[in-house]
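Lab notebook page, bench 4
Experiment: in silico fold of construct C2
Operator: M.H.
Input chain length: 178 residues
Purpose: comparison with the prior construct
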Amino acid sequence: MKLFGNRKRETDLPPEISRLVEEYAQEKGMDFRKALEELVKKGYRYAQMEKMYGKSVHDREVWDKRFYYLKIEAGYLYYRMRFRDLLEEMRSLSMILLGTVKSLELCYQRYAPKNEIIEKELKELEKLERTARRYIEEFVLSGRKELEEKVYADDREVLKSIEETLRKYRQEFGLSNE
């Protein structure tokens, strides 16, 4: 098929390309020339975007923002759960430290002779106790409060958004809701 019957530019399209353009024209209900123009414009725009993003045309992150946001939401939930685990671990370690400090204080007070060395040790234990309590108050309790406040997002909303995105992908790929 001759393209652009212009005297300056006469180009033949290969049959497979001509067939693709004809299919597109039928799909969109337009003539061959208009379909070809539209496809060339789209192809050029894709090439520009590929150049701009430096990624493949088939890379889902360039073309489908849902995929990109799904990764962000999943990361958000992962780190919230990880933060919760770390707070519990820090609380546990602080409580163990407090228990150990109290046991040492009790041993020094009951069984050690009263002298300067023992007094120094008791002062060091006092510092350790303050440090453990400060960790519990500053990090554990305030961290729990932050998790409960849901300042950045509600976990239910994030999960709902992820579920909706997954449902869309399952439909797009023809997968059942397993």
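Observations: The first strand starts at residue 2 and ends at 3. Residues 65-111 form the longest helix (47 residues).
Next step: discuss at group meeting.
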